[in-house]
Amino acid sequence: MKTCKPNDAFGRPLHRLEIARKVFDHIELKRCHFDSIIDVGGAQGAWLHAARERFKATRIRCYDHPDMRTRELLIDSENYTFCDLEQREKQFNQADLAICVECLEHLSPDAAERVFELLCSSASALLFSAALPRQDGVGHINGRWSAHWRRRLLDNGFVEMTDFKRKILFDSSIPYYLRQNLSLYIKKDEGIKCIQLARPNDDLLFVPLDFEIVHHQILKKPYRLRELFKMLWLSIKRKLIGS
Q1: Are strands 158-160 and 183-187 parallel, antiparallel or unpaired?
Q2: What is the mean pLDDT of the chain?
Q3: How many whole angstroms separate alpha carbon 19 and alpha carbon 39?
Q4: Residue 233 burial (CB < 10 Å; 0-12/13-18/19+)?
Q5: Domains, the chain
Q6: Among residues 17, 56, 63, 215, which one has the fewest Cβ atoms lying within 10 Å of its Cβ?
Q7: Residues 76, 60: contact at Cβ < 8 Å?
Q8: Cα–Cα distances in angstroms (integers) from residue 1 to residues 40, 73, 74, 75, 143, in the given order
Q9: 179 in the Ramachandran plot: left (φ > 0), alpha (ψ -120 to 50) or beta?
């Protein structure tokens, strides 16, 4: 399959490539080394393209739906594993860094949890984001609050790189949903190649588990009638259970 130069076709991969470059600029090269990188749900490969540029990785692998075969890719097709993540049970390649950006909200809850566990066992570092409830986007069927994934990451032995989160949160050139959702995590006992990313006195998380970072665009979004009925039903249900 022919690999194209970055362009704006097929879901604006050039736009995603520029965003990825801005994000990776906030990871200091002298403090990490990612020789092998995987991207789960990586579409045309924008994040892997930028990661290879930034970290000079020698081994990359993108996992996404077979429909990607029909699209012009930003990385060589030999670096793809075309698969249906909804049905994926096989382990991903082991890597120094795993990337999963705004993907799991497109999967059913069971599939998202399964893919997430595979991610956690595949790499020593994880660049991760997933859409919140009520966040705009095509095909969002499984929005979860960030605390859900942050708790799961802690359970899997990861700690959040709070300095990285602080940098992207205040970078207004990055889209709000990534400033809101995206974080970098490393495993406490396995971050050998990026050991200087974590300092002994770092907090485990940038935001406590009982707090959320939510952009005002989501907070001000009008509720749809279906959402109001769901909220009413849950309220009645809680009252009945509590009575």
Answers
A1: antiparallel
A2: 84
A3: 15
A4: exposed
A5: 13-212 (3.40.50.150)
A6: 56
A7: no
A8: 20, 9, 11, 10, 34
A9: alpha
Q: Give the tens place of pLDDT for each residue, 184-193.
A: 999 876 544 5
Is the pLDDT assigned to residue 204 strictly greater than 60? yes
Ranges of H-type helices in the chain: 13-24, 46-55, 109-120, 146-155, 162-169, 176-181, 216-219, 225-242
Phi and psi at residue 212, in whole multiples of 5°? -135, 145
CA distance 176 to 174: 6
Nearest to 42 by CA among 4, 73, 19: 73
Report the predicted TM-score, pTM, of the whole model to 2 decimal places.
Answer: 0.83
CA–CA distance from 222 to each of 56, 183, 200, 231, 235 (Å)? 44, 28, 43, 14, 19
Cα separation, 61 vs 39, in Å, equals 6
DSSP state of 26: T
Q: Are strands 183-187 and 123-129 parallel, antiparallel or unpaired?
A: antiparallel
User: Please, which residues have CB within 8 angstroms of residue 99's CB and are 6 or more apart in sequence?
Assistant: 37, 38, 39, 40, 42, 47, 48, 51, 126, 127, 128
